[in-house]
Design goal:
Length: 241
Amino acid sequence: MSSKSHKAQEVLALLERAAVADEVAAAMRHNLRNKLGSIRNASFFLARKAREAPMWNDPKVQRFFTIVDESIDEADEIVSRTFVGVRARRQIQVVPLRDCVERATSYARVFPGVTFDLDVGAIAVEVDPDELALAIRCLLENAAEAMDQHGAVRVSVTAEEASCAISVSDTGPGVPESERENIFLSHRTTKEGHLGIGLNIARRIAVRYGGAVSLLSAPRGATFSLTLKTTSPPARKGAAP
């Protein structure tokens, strides 16, 4: 492996660690806020009942309920400040989409029997190329894992006037109807030894650039689509202005 390729792989590994930290922090923040919400609702209910009882005439009782409410607000603020995730420094630039796709396929962690069939035209996007490559790699690895260690993952791009869709299709068993609505839930996976956050990482990156990740209907296997805004193709070096 050349020093340039090794450096590119290190960058993707760093971005992946940051993305995983982001996803874990978001899940923790969500769960803690749900717990705090339950405590707040319980406190409200108990305070309403206490107002109907003689105990409410005791100033200490009212003060204790005030302390509970204030403590919940303070805890919620601490959660917001603490679990902010890890933000990698981004280098936004206009790049050919094909470069990001090829980088993703080069460093995708798949079995030797898995191949990639690419159909990507001359489309340019304004992104951090490493970050987009990571998002696509997550989709590629998700597709490869759905197949029995062999087969072709197809990557195709369709473009409209100001947007494009990167579709990643596999020939696996597909997503069961019962799981289609849960597929993007954090840490939701049927694969042993996996965190179940690859799709979430891809979606989080897509949303960051005004796009989205969705599961499409397919006659066979599963197809995930990552949409992005497009821009005019970057000028080639030496081309006339």
